[in-house]
Amino acid sequence: MARKQAPRAELIIALGASAGGVEALQVCLGRAEAGRNHAYVILQHVDPADTKLLAEALQAKIPLPVTVVERDTPVRGDHVYIVPAHTVLSLVNERLRVDGAATADDRRNPIDRHLRALAEGAKDRAVGVILSGAGTDGTLGLKAISEAGGLTVAQAPETARYDGMPRNAVMSGVVDQVLAPEQIADELARYGKHVASVSDAEHSAAL
Fold this sequence. Notes:
This protein is an alpha/beta fold. Helices cover about 35% and strands about 25% of the residues. Strands 3-5-2-1-8-9-10 form a 7-stranded parallel sheet, sandwiched between helices. Strands 4-7-6 form a 3-stranded antiparallel sheet. α1 crosses α6 and α3 packs parallel to α4. About 40% of the residues are buried.
């Protein structure tokens, strides 16, 4: 008897964070609840040797299981995935795939690059969130999410330990919502309910 496949995640929510971002991630995801069928993908600048430590730090504060993405990892709702640094990410057939042979050019602005890959793979199911971090990484990735029809969110710069990344995103004009970390958690839940209700309505209309 064939094993029944898990339903695809309703939303694929990518959270980009750098310096000072662990605390924001813990707050945003600490209020995530099972049953929403959202997959959370963490994009960061952490050294590959510290990825396991990041997973442990998040798992201590997050009620959902945390997994470090390996070469070919199926995406499931109600899970948190960490993309290792220095990798090239793609989303194909509901599977996260990473290639560890990132070039020097690939390692520049990895959050932008990963967000573009998720926008391409998830289309309007993609959500991009930029949290604390220095520099400008993430802004172009949010633009790709927006153009694909997804939601874009930035941490309110005044609440970030390092405001460069969220501030640049806000100033670019591609951000739908600017919120404190605890408000981001609420907005993701609200948006998920909205998407589910629209999906149900479209399904009913097609019957």
